[in-house]
Amino acid sequence: MPSTLPALSATPAHTEDLGRRTSLRLPATLLLVGQLLYIAVTQFHTDGDANNHPAVFTEYADSGIWTAVHLGQFAGMAVLLAGLVALFFALDVQAGTARWAGRFGAASAVATLALYGVLQAVDGVALKQAVNAWASAPYAEKPARFAGAEAIRWLEWGVRSYQNFALGLALLLFAAAVMRTAWVPRPIGHLMGLSGLTYLVQGWVVGSAGFSRTETIAIVLAFVLDVAWMIWLAVVAWRTRDAQSPPPTR
Predict the structure, then answer these.
(1) 164: which of 113, 146, 202, 234 fits an S-S bond (Cβ 3.0–4.6 Å)?
(2) The pTM is what?
(3) Which domain holds residue 50?
(4) Does any domain span residue 249?
């Protein structure tokens, strides 16, 4: 008659670790879905030399999907930032420095969403109306209409700059919290910190030179770093299924 061996039970520490990893599933999913949605929608944004205002304003005026693209970008950013706030609760850090880093990171994420809402109101609504008015204005009125559109563009630079600063700060603070959380791989925090630095660079470049080629390079680098650490975080959060399954009984 075959003997029956008792199933191995997980230790309390192992069970606690699995529970923490499971709690990462919501923020990891929100972060990755939000980032991928943002990247996908941005591919439909009107292209061109963004600092060549006469040429790019003409392209903006001709765009029929301008409002939809910017609404999609806002949705993607909102999901991503919701993921950052959810990450604060999932980490549940108790150490003093990490706890305060997480709190200030969550507050910075909320500020980022508010600034991004203002940005999309300026870019997605006000600028579009201004370039439409310039494109359809009589020749004598075009200089004044163009000056108005440029003023809104420069306001967009300012809001974008500070939104990038706020997002970069949020990522740096969360990176500090992650690197003090033993059950999350430290390289995830390193990648988050590098991503945060690229957003700070974007904020400085936009505020001083507008939407230049340097800013475009920083955007692409931020996308690559973001996707890398978000996928890694998702793998950590979702790879618990096999570990949670009890061993077979013989």
Answers:
(1) 202
(2) 0.87
(3) 15-242
(4) no
